[in-house]
Amino acid sequence: MINCDIAVIGAGPAGLAAAVAAYNAGVKDIIVIERDKEAGGILNQCIHNGFGLHRFGEELSGPEYAGRYIDMLKETDIKLKLKTMVLSIDNKVISAVSEENGFEQIKAKAIILAMGCRERNRGPISVPGDRGSGVFSAGCAQRYLNIEGYLVGKRVVILGSGDIGLIMARRMTLEGAKVLAVAEIMPFTNGLSRNVAQCLDDFGIPLYLSHTVTDVIGDGRIEGIVISQVDESMKPIKGTEKRFDCDTLLLSVGLVPENELTRGAGIEIDPRTNGAIVGEDMQTNEAGVFACGNVLHVHDLVDYVSAESERAGISAARFVLSGGAERGAQTAVLNGSNVSYTVPQHFSPEKIEKGIDIFFRVRKKIRLGEIRVESNGIKLAGFKREFLAPGEMQKITVPKVLLDRAEGDITVSAVEIEEAE
Amino acid sequence: MYDVLIIGGGVCGAAVAMYLSKYDIKCALLEKENDIAMGTTKANSGIVHAGYDPEPDTLMARLNVRGSELTEELCKKLSVPYKKTGSLVVAFDSKDEAHIRKLYDRGMENGVRGMELLDKESLFELEPNLSEKAVGALYAPSAAVVNPWRFCIAMCETAAENGVEFYLDSEVTSIEKINGCFAVTAGGRTFDTKYIINAAGIYADDVASLVGARDFEIKASKGQYFLLDKTQSGLVNTVVFQCPTEKGKGVLVSPTADGNIIVGPNAESGNERDDVSTTREGLDFVAAEAAKTTSKINYRENIRSFSGLRANSDKSDFIIGESDLCRHFINVAGIKSPGLSSAAAIGEYVAELIADCGLIMTEKEQWNYPAPKVRFNELSNVEKERLCKENPKYGNVVCRCNLITEGEILDALDSKIKPRTLDGIKRRAGSGMGRCQGGFCGPRVHEIIANYYNIPMEEVLLDKNGSYIVCGKVGGEE
């Protein structure tokens, strides 16, 4: 059994930032466990730029952004165990396996969960049709292209307008493939607006909103797909079928936090985020186990992942240095109208120093809205925001002075407001 | 000269091959696809029925009950996932209650053991998630679930281990009768044989045509399914059937031998033989029907929808026996449900049939089951530690959903009947069978296959011939 102060599971952007922050907060005995052969996580295959505008004030590629944190990690004595898969977590004992060290167990005083997320595939959305090859999740195709150096197909249709799908539309086009269409079942795109402009509009790739794939044709390699328009209840409308002759269908239909280990450890999961329920310190319901990044809730921007993970790292360090501090009474953060989830889901008022960052998503597009924080019918704070969309995660910072006025739980809602004449 | 040639590498061909491998005869199996277990065998409910369904005094009744007895022991010996879950036929009204009483009586006549008619209370003790409308059920404790393709592959591996030859990509295109023997052309080779076993599944009538013995027709019937993530395990504990209605046999909700939940199938006749597509209408129908059984099915946790074809025929019973129109040509055809349940018994029975036809069959002195394969995730910590020391490849986890290691993938590649495709590996090692459906392990398994066979990545297939995965290197020539 190996002992350490903090074990971080995952060396993607979340794990790296959490480990470095914990180290800088005074805990030196840290192990980061990563299943891949190098640190950086999914950033390594995201060779486009646009990362780091918030964090570093410049546009970096994915590997460059990861590189910044890998360099920071190298400045420390943090141990990085690569090509190592965690099999289970039980009472802060991690069982892991690797080619180099075989089966081993690591006992940690605190654990930071930073396993990231995986792509939703054809199953949950039940795309009907044949089962020939050529149907890929966008990230899988991205891996083939950017890591392995292989093109997965030449004539492509993309289902779902998530960011990876949009990025791949551009990437495949640049590599000589013909991207025939992007279909999105919702009446709005799920990706960042800048990606719609730069990846579709600039290349003349048509976007079909309120459309979905209703047939896949081909038993060996796929030969075509059919898309149809959907009605308000998302049911395909007969007679609106459009066939595309293509050899590839990419799916960019959402990401799911990868919480198999979390569930196995018996940690409470929020069905809204599919991630652990955490407090303002990113601590889960198991004392000393923290979670951050896409394993907690799916982010749009890695910059926010880093910020959140640093908070988790600092909290874990505090937990270790204080020998497992008591947690105060907890106040719930409830979802009001048009808010689909919040992170954190609760907080301890006495632990808040300056204020609390609350991340959330809205349920529908709102051109001009107010984010309201209320408690027991009293408005604590209001934040005016323009162009709110489900595809873009929102963040508010509620100062402690306002929070102190709360009477019990607080509710976050997004209210549409009339534009003044 | 072969003594026996088996046409078709599905579960029936596999069982026949395994039972024949016990005798000192020369035997080969021909499969038209690039792997075994590629047809009905890989896409069905995976149920070993108790045996109350078939009409008494039919082959189906006899072989089902016998098969159900044989399969449990066989799966243990072959290390095939098998769970004796028991089954329920749920009644929702008095008409259904009459039906399950009829099934009970029929089961008694067929020799099914341990059946019980449950009242509502005992039913809900067994299955708390059922619809409140359920009023009772027929419980058959001997029903089980099995991983059908693992069952088929394990029987083929056993046959191969004991001397049966396997030829993949070998579609039979002609059969000539010469001096009371057959010359079979398949995959560019000619095989001379004394006996033919026609186990060609949904193509069995076409194969019978080749010897002018097409006295039956296969009427493939398609069934569509949902397969739910292991997170949903516990939704039902037994195989839960509905009573048949005018609309069909009723869909089932069942655990699988691997710990998932399966929901389906519908029944569509008249479709083309090679059509295994799913349709929105079909899947919607399955979901609507299954809702009668339980309202708690979470389709967001669906990991795969698929279709399978049942080899129904124009005869009411299985068609097993020497053809009336061609001597030494033995049909194992029209093997519809309960075909999987009966497969082992069919193998046993066909071996007897051939002996009755006059082939001299001496039992071998030496006959062995193949050594069981490593299933890393099922081992204890101590065993995991020991195994990794012996072979570090077991320390490299390739499939994260099912925790399948590189060692297990290499073991699959080293099989007697070698898989060459990602899905071939999936059916043997279980990689890519989890919630991400190969999104993560796909590229990694792909690379392991390319390295193993020393072939370019472009030549590695997902499944059937033609199912290439990548079309070229980036920046490479057209």
Can you characterise this structure?
The complex is a heterodimer of chains A (421) and B (478). Chain A has 3 domains: 2-118 and 256-327, FAD/NAD(P)-binding domain (3-Layer(bba) Sandwich), CATH 3.50.50; 121-253, 3-Layer(bba) Sandwich (FAD/NAD(P)-binding domain); 335-416. Chain A is 21% helix and 36% strand. Chain A is built from 9 helices and 30 strands. In chain A, strands 1, 2, 5, 6, 7, 8 and 22 form a 7-stranded mixed β-sheet that branches. Chain A is globular, with a radius of gyration of 22 Å. With 478 residues, chain B is an alpha+beta fold. Among the domains of chain B are: 83-143 and 221-308, D-Amino Acid Oxidase, Chain A, domain 2 (2-Layer Sandwich), CATH 3.30.9; 376-459, Orthogonal Bundle (Arc Repressor Mutant, subunit A), CATH 1.10.10. Helices cover 30% and strands 23% of the residues of chain B. Chain B has 12 helices and 23 strands. Chain B has helices at residues 11-20, 59-78, 94-110, 120-126, 148-161, 204-209, 280-293, 339-357, 381-390, 406-413, 422-429, 442-453; strands at 2-7, 27-30, 47-48, 82-83, 87-91, 116-119, 136-140, 144-146, 165-167, 172-178, 181-186, 189-198, 218-228, 239-242, 252-255, 261-264, 268-269, 302-313, 319-322, 329-333, 397-399, 404-405, 472-473. In chain B, strands 1, 2, 9, 10, 11, 12, 19 and 20 form an 8-stranded mixed β-sheet that branches. In chain B, strands 13, 15, 16, 17 and 18 form a 5-stranded antiparallel β-sheet that branches. In chain B, strand 10 (172-178) and strand 11 (181-186) form a beta hairpin. In chain B, helix 1 (11-20) packs across helix 8 (339-357). Chain B is globular, with a radius of gyration of 22 Å. Classes of the chains: A alpha/beta (421), B alpha+beta (478). At the A-B interface, strand 7, strand 8, helix 3, helix 4 and strand 11 of A face helix 7, strand 18, helix 9, helix 12 and strand 23 of B.
